[in-house]
Amino acid sequence: MRFAAIATLLLSLSFPAEAAISSRYLTAGTSVDGMICVDAATGAVLSEEKADFPGHPASVTKLMTTLLVLEDIKAGKLSLRSRVTVTKAAADIGGSQVWLAPGESFTVEEMLYALLLKSANDVAVALAIDRAGSVPVFVARMNRRAAELGMTRTTFVTPNGLTYGKGPHDTTTARDLAKLAVTLCQFPEVLKFTSTKQYMLRRPGKPLELLNHNHLLESFPGCDGLKTGWTVAAHASIVTTAKDKDVRVIAIVLGCQSSAGAKSEQRLRDSLADDLMTQGFEKLKKLEAEKALRLARTPVLTPARKPPVKAKKDEGFWDWLGDLFSF
Questions:
Q1: What whole-number distance in Å separates Cα of residue 112 and Cα of residue 52?
Q2: Kind of pairing between the strands at 198-201 and 105-107
Q3: For this structure, is 119 an active site residue?
Q4: pLDDT at 229 over 90
Q5: How far apart are CA 171 and CA 54, in angstroms?
Q6: What mean pLDDT comes out for the span 106-135?
Q7: I need a surface site. Which of 14, 139, 214, 239 has the fewest CB within 10 A?
Q8: What is the per-residue pLDDT across 171-209, written as a single tens digit (0 to 9) for each?
Q9: What is the reported pTM?
Q10: Would residue 31 show up in a list of annotated catalytic residues for this protein?
C-alpha cells in the first residue's frame, strides 16, 4: 500500500496535466460516465476522468462472479473440472445466453468460457445458484467481497448485469472496477479465458461456437482481457488490460452513451480504452526512465578506509621479554 501511494504521488509529479482523453472523442450526443487507467502491479492511477461518478456496468458485473468462482477454486471448494447442473431459473434468464436447458451439466471451465466470451447470462445464474444455493445469497456475497476490496460505491443486484428499465441496476464507478480488475489479474488463469478469441462449447448434438466480444484483442498489442458490457439501460462499458514486456495496465471505461445507438457506443468505448492503455504505457515508461536517470546521478558512496594502526616503538622488546619468562 505504501509503495502504491508513493508511485501515485510520483506519477502526479512527473506528468503535467494533459487534455482529457474524452475531449478527443466526445461529440454532440455522446457522453461517458467515467474512465480510469491503472498500473496492474500496484493499482497506482495513471490517468482518470470522472473516476468516481456512478454508472451501470452491464455485463462487466460478471467479473465479480468470475472472481468468486476463482477464489472458491483457490480455496479448494471446487475445481475447473467440477460439474455445474443447470436449473430452470438459469435456463429462463434472458439477454445474451448459450441457451442452457434444465438438467444439463457443464464443467466450471466450460462455463467460464461461456461467461467471459459469450457473456452468457444463463451461465452466470447457474454458477451463482451452484456456489450459493440461490441468486440473492450469491449477490449478497458479491457485495461483501466488493466491500472487502474497497469498492465503496458499488452495489450489485444481479450476478450478470442484466437489468431493465428503471432498475434497480448494478451500480459502480470506474475506480471501483479498477480495484476489482487489479485483484482479478492476480489470477493468471483468468487471462487464459479472457484472451481466448474463439471457443467451441461441446454439447450433445448442438456444439456452439463462442466468440469473444472484446475487439481490442485484435487491435491492441498485448491485450488479453478482460470484459465488455452493454445493455439498453447501462449503455457500453469495458474493463480491459494489456501487457508490454513486464508491465501491465488496466483501463476502464464506464457508461458510454451515444444518440447514434449501440454500435456507436461500443466503438466509442473501444477507442477510449485504446487511448487510455496507450497513454498508460507511455507514462509508465517515462516513470521508469526518470527512475533510471535518478539512480545514475546518485553518487556511489564507498566506505572510508581506516588508517593503519602503528605499533608502539618498544612493543617488540616487551613481547620478547614476556616470552622469555613464560613457562
A1: 29
A2: unpaired
A3: yes
A4: yes
A5: 6
A6: 98
A7: 14
A8: 999 999 999 999 999 999 999 999 999 999 988 778 999
A9: 0.85
A10: no
157 within 8 A of 135, measured Cβ to Cβ: no
Residue with cell 614476556: 322
Could you give the CA distance from residue 128 to residue 32 in angstroms, rounded to a whole number? 30
Query: Which of 104, 103, 127, 102 has its CA nearest to residue 114?
Result: 127
Given a cut of 80, is residue 299 above it in pLDDT? Answer: no
Query: What would the pLDDT profile of 307-327 be if each residue is shown by its tens digit?
Result: 666 555 555 555 554 554 444
How far apart are alpha carbons 315 and 327 in whole angstroms? Answer: 21
CATH 3.40.710.10 applies to domain 19-287: yes
Pick the catalytic residue from 119, 179, 237, 258: 119
Q: What percent of the chain has pLDDT over 90?
A: 77
Residue 204 CA to chain centroid, in angstroms? Answer: 35
- Compute the chain's Rg from CA coordinates: 28
Q: What is the pLDDT of residue 6?
A: 44
Closest CA to 280 of 252, 307, 260, 318: 252
Please calculate the CA angle 296-300-302 and round it to the nearest 5 degrees. 170
The single residue of 59, 96, 237, 258 carrying the catalytic annotation is 59
Given 62, 118, 227, 283, the catalytic residue:
62
- Nearest CA to 170 out of 22, 63, 51, 263 is that of 63
Phi first, then psi: give them for residue 53, nearest 5 degrees.
-80, 130
